[in-house]
């Protein structure tokens, strides 16, 4: 079918006539003025005649902020909407023009097809994005990306507006005044619908654990991340492409046995000191017939035989030292499963055992630190004295496998290095893993440096190498464990600068990786707006402030829309000794529209939650 095109705010209809010649008869061209006013000017009458002869519909006195009033429901499916050089007229300030754009985008949302596009041409500097040369100060611009976000749109592309490339186009001014808009340096902004940020609903999950059926609630921060199936057969997600390439490459040097199924997401038992706040604790309940409330439309129920966790973020029994029977937590690593396999009778020295799957860790907010990621663990037992050669062979094959994938990425540099753990301070590794002390001491860290030619290189710690005794009495075996964060590998190799994009539900992400092919990622949301909100509070007297819990609550209430949390000030009141902290939260989404109002609502809810759950006294 021919593309349905709507043009708004036409001055003399010359742009519409040119579009109609290229797009065909399904064109609706409109003006805010009456037909008598428009026809009396310049070549407008000729353009209107050409449009009508071509089968296009021409409409007058159309208010661009009330579009649904002019079209029946059957006709509210435009594939493309144009609005060139919108303006309130005369000396209207930036505030009024922002309001015009905001109402215009709201109107577009009601008549645009799901995969449609809105194109808005603005004069130099008006948009307020880095694409403008020069870029105006934010407060002095029309803030086009932020106002579009209010209607659920993201900026997907920006290109120069070239009037000379539109045959027959003559630019006019506001309401066809003699002074035309200046098109030099003008930009055409391309907006598309954002994936909707849906509210998180409680999820009750059932699992089989130690031959019992139990149920519990998934923590809110993980509801949209659990059971995504990125590593499942048929997935073309980059993490699966990398996993398969690594497994294939290592199979040329070792007999390989993959163990991906039947790995419980729940672990139990003792945790080393300092690790309690970094894991997701669960409270198990015996499985019973679900109540009517549990099965109501607002509550999701899933049957999972390999993972999940509880709704609560902290375990009061752990915090207060009380004994809680049958403590379980979501696995923070696959290493405990790997350590268990070496004690089984089926364990064969010299065979490379490969484990992969999602793991879960509470962590502070940063673009490269995620509460869930896909880990890949390699385990091999060798004779004592040959562990270094085994490590070198493993690392060489990992390098070769990733370089083979890298060859498909043009103008892209990639380097991998193995360095001793003793050469790095703990502060350098804080983003890599919060539970390394509980998982055992690492002897080496695996680093990757990657980036496009001519751009700054990103360097990240991707994994660890450990060597441990074989565990069998009288055995001369040692076991080599190599752990990799597949998500970080994918981010570096595909030039993805925020883990939330890797986990986005927007289909435009996976479309960039057909049939599992690795490519450099191209953002479909340019210059996303950010909103800063500060919060200050008094700490409870004599109690430890759990900053990880503070960050986790921010993740929950914002649906991962907080991109950073910065400590601005720490103050101790003279005389009383009371301690106050002030933090700045920056709200921003790289994969979805986030409006100013939505960010403000998230901040208000965050204030309420930290008061109620952490006992903080807001200032």
From TrEMBL:
InterPro entries: aa-tRNA-synth_II/BPL/LPL, BMT5-like, Fdx_antiC-bd, Fdx_antiC-bd_sf, SAM-dependent_MTases_sf. One of its GO terms (cellular component) is mitochondrial matrix. Its main location: mitochondrion. PROSITE patterns: FDX_ACB. It is found in: Mitochondrion matrix. Residues 526-619 form the FDX-ACB domain. One of its GO terms (biological process) is rRNA base methylation. It comes from the Eukaryota. Keywords: Aminoacyl-tRNA synthetase, ATP-binding, Ligase, Mitochondrion, Nucleotide-binding, Protein biosynthesis, Signal, Transit peptide. Residues 1-16 form the signal peptide. The keyword Transit peptide applies. This is phenylalanine--tRNA ligase. It comes from Penelope pileata. The lineage of its organism: Eukaryota, Metazoa, Chordata, Craniata, Vertebrata.
